[in-house]
Specification:
The complex is a heterodimer. By secondary structure, chain A is of the alpha+beta class. Chain A has helices spanning 24-31, 87-94, 104-117, 123-129, 141-157, and strands spanning 3-9, 12-18, 50-53, 56-59, 72-74. Chain A is globular, with a radius of gyration of 15 Å. The interface between A and B is medium-sized, with 24 and 23 residues.
């Protein structure tokens, strides 16, 4: 039987009807219209659907929507504050850290989870943080550089 | 048992676009009533930057700010014809068509501006900031927006242009049968350093250094990005990617991102690239194309580096640990 799921999405209270077994990714994309998390492999191996749940990176294609009830969900759509892009988004743009863009939302959220916990990550920590996210275009180097650049800007702000 | 280092070189002589001529692309440019410009194309942007480069080429040719150019590559069913985004042809073929279309639109723009200012169109120039002015008389000026409105609502003119690029089909030499395969070549040379573990057969790429001669680099950020991404793809083709089964048979072959192997962010070596610009005679503002060539040289360079390191020649991609170890066994047996 379909059930109502309520949680916080990028700071706003939301509610949706979810079918039994429906994933958080499906609820976000198909019921709440937030298509920023991407549906890639749908088996938890590509990372394109990465969102934050209570600040931790989660593969939303594997998480049942019910499991998000009452929790705080963040997606790329909530990253920018009005016209003000998040430092990660700025750095990704400036460093050409995207080509086709399909992995970018997942990369951004995996990177945000890292920087929220650690403002001064090492290169190895950045690599570890995005090692669950597959990119076919960039060769990863511009993404790693962009995350390190965003970390520098965030820590300069204090 | 030891780790061996080796160095390999590969060079590329890369033809731009489809061989033997033809290979057409078209573009249309038109002004809106507010003096913005739309370029309509069927050349699809799949992340390689077709739209960015098109905006740059159209803005440069028209003489208007890049912010005033919009690119519509929405639908290859209804758009002007293009052979497609492949063969590293987008910038060269579609780019030339965009320039031709923008030139024709610019002529109409200047004609209408000349009528409005009551001067000869040959005395007019664009300032690149959205205005048409009389050469040597900067006070005599009219905005592109005003020109567009005059064209639409008073002069009854369409500020628009058609662009077509077609490489002349190659003749056949009756004596030799020779044809001219292509008009423009890009070039590259790459040096790769590897480390080969003769116990596990594992190959690690330590560094990639390359020089690319690509004509004019229209957008240096996009060029560097593609060259780095291509280096990764080349490593991936050389060492990882295959749909062949590993063990024991095809049913155990790769079926998903868990089993279809590719290098992750931690497997990527430093990539150092020099870009050499030698404008192509028939390229859009001298540009060639880089698309596919950026993924090719790592493969032979890595094969050569492996041979340099351990003295065996691997001739089949990918150069897996199994193939390395079997080749080492064969070498030892031959002694």
């Amino acid at each position: 039987m379909a059930t109502a799921v309520e949680f916080t999405l990028n700071g706003n209270a939301v509610a949706a009807i979810a079918e039994p077994g429906e994933t958080l990714l499906s609820v976000l994309r198909n019921r709440l219209g937030d298509t920023s998390p991407k549906a890639g492999c749908l088996q938890g191996t590509c990372g394109a659907c990465t969102v934050l749940v209570d600040g931790e990176p989660v593969l939303s294609c594997l998480l049942l929507a019910d499991a998000a009830a009452g929790r705080h969900v963040e997606t790329v759509r909530g990253l920018a504050q009005g016209p003000q892009l998040h430092p990660l988004q700025e750095a990704f743009m400036e460093r050409f850290a995207a080509q086709c863009g399909f992995c970018t939302p997942g990369m951004l959220m995996a990177a945000k989870a890292l920087l929220d916990h650690n403002r001064n990550p090492t290169r190895a920590e950045v690599i570890e943080a995005i090692s669950g996210n597959v990119c076919r275009c960039t060769g990863y180097l511009p993404i790693i550089e962009a995350i390190l650049e965003a970390a520098r800007r965030l820590s300069a702000r204090g | 048992m030891a780790k061996h280092r080796g160095r390999g070189v590969a060079s590329v002589n890369y033809p731009i676009g489809m061989n033997l001529g033809g290979d057409p692309s078209q573009a249309l440019v038109h002004a809106t009533p507010t003096g913005k410009f739309v370029v309509t194309l069927s050349s699809i942007d799949l992340g390689q930057g077709m739209k960015s480069v098109t905006r740059q080429l159209a803005a440069e040719t028209l003489g208007v700010p890049i912010e005033d150019v919009h690119v519509d590559t929405g639908d290859s069913d209804t758009g002007p014809h293009c052979m497609g985004s492949f063969a590293s042809r987008g910038t060269h073929r579609a780019g030339n068509a965009v320039i031709a279309a923008a030139r024709e639109a610019r002529e109409v723009l200047l004609e209408v501006a000349a009528e409005e200012l009551e001067v000869d169109p040959r005395d007019l120039e664009l300032d690149g900031r959205g205005n048409v002015r009389v050469k040597g008389a900067p006070a005599r000026t009219i905005s592109v927006r005003e020109v567009a409105q005059a064209a639409h609502f008073r002069r009854g003119k369409s500020i628009s242009g058609r662009g077509m690029f077609l490489v002349p089909p190659s003749d056949v030499d009756p004596e030799t049968g020779a044809m001219r395969p292509v008009t423009t070549y890009a070039h590259a040379c790459m040096i790769v350093e590897v480390e080969v573990d003769d116990e596990t057969g594992e190959v690690t790429v330590l560094s990639i250094k390359a020089a690319y001669e690509i004509g004019r680099a229209l957008n240096i950020g996009l060029v560097e990005q593609q060259l780095v991404g291509g280096a990764w793809m080349g490593i991936s083709h050389a060492l990882f990617e295959t749909v062949e089964p590993y063990y024991p048979d095809r049913a155990h072959g790769p079926v998903d991102f868990n089993t279809y192997l590719m290098p992750g962010p931690g497997d990527m070596c430093p990539v150092e690239i020099e870009i050499i610009e030698r404008p192509a005679l028939d390229g859009p503002y001298g540009a060639k194309g880089i698309g596919e060539m950026c993924a090719t040289p790592p493969i032979p360079a890595i094969a050569n580096a492996i041979e340099d390191a351990i003295g065996v020649r691997i001739t089949e991609m990918p150069f897996t640990p199994e193939k390395i170890l079997r080749a080492l066994d064969a070498k030892r047996a031959a002694r």
